[in-house]
Design brief:
The protein is mainly alpha-helical and 105 residues long. It has 5 helices and 2 strands. β1 and β2 form a beta hairpin.
């Protein structure tokens, strides 16, 4: 078993004992969002390119896709990403800056 599968197996085992709560910030994958077609198929990016852009390992992206943590398109066996959807996802998960944070007394 490869290391990634071990991590997935551990994560799945860990989450089976916890209550499943919907995440407030994560958009749900519905039939409409899964079946929609991209505006410009030539603009889609693959795992390797997104990995370079975000500066994270490819295996991390595969894990996020498997757990539905990042928006993606599945074209047959291929996994592709829409740049606009990724930009929106990054904006949604951006940590607040120190200027906007509440000061504690």
């Amino acid at each position: 078993m490869c290391f990634t599968r071990q991590k997935r197996a551990y994560f799945m085992h860990e989450t089976q004992h916890q209550k499943a709560e919907p995440r407030a910030n994560t958009p749900l994958r519905t039939k409409e969002t899964l079946r929609r077609t991209p505006q410009d198929p030539a603009s889609l990016i693959d795992i390797a390119e997104l990995s370079k852009r975000l500066g994270i390992p490819r295996n991390t992206l595969y894990d996020w896709v498997a757990f539905g943590r990042i928006p993606y398109l599945k074209l047959g066996k291929l996994i592709r990403f829409e740049p606009k959807a990724i930009e929106d996802w990054i904006a949604l998960h951006r940590a607040p800056s120190k200027e906007n944070s509440v000061k504690r007394a």
